[in-house]
Hints:
Oligomer: single chain
Structural class: mainly alpha
Amino acid sequence: MKKELTPRKRQALEMRAKIQSTALSLFNQEGFENVSVEEIAQAAGCSVGNIYHYFKSKDELAIQVTQMVDRAYTELEKAYLADKTTSGRDKLLDFVGKSLEISARDEVLYKAFIHGLRYPEQGVLQKSDKRVYYRVLRELVEQCRQEGSIHPSRDPDEIVEELVVLHRGTLFEWRIYQEGFDVARQGRRMADALLRGLQTE
């Protein structure tokens, strides 16, 4: 049973999210180098000290957004590991759809994607073994290889990379067309086609 957040904790989480969203919007409008912590504080309606309470630096404002979604991915990972009846293939397709839904509904995460494209040197979008998203993908790909829905000769790292490209491409296409299609359904359909091609050598 999940613990109910106290009003104070909820307020802190809301303030943290507001600071981050405001910062990412300013970075996208003005350029990362041109925005000061003072300007972020003014736009977010808080003090500079409040910002440093949640974030060590301006760079961390852009990078820490991944920690919020990692919690959601960790919950999915626990469910997949506990589920002994569903095939690895079905779990992988489910994860493709659910991770797209998470990305689509989180405006701060989308802003972080845009920021990561503009400032690739910060490594926000680069593969990291510390990220839960990559770990879950790798675990599910390995399950698929063990059960034979992905041929064992296929390189799991390459498959993970292809699934990441599929995720990002589907998400950006969805944004380009002003959210005009079911992003999770489209992602699952494309992943299904990819997996069918990976069943043989």
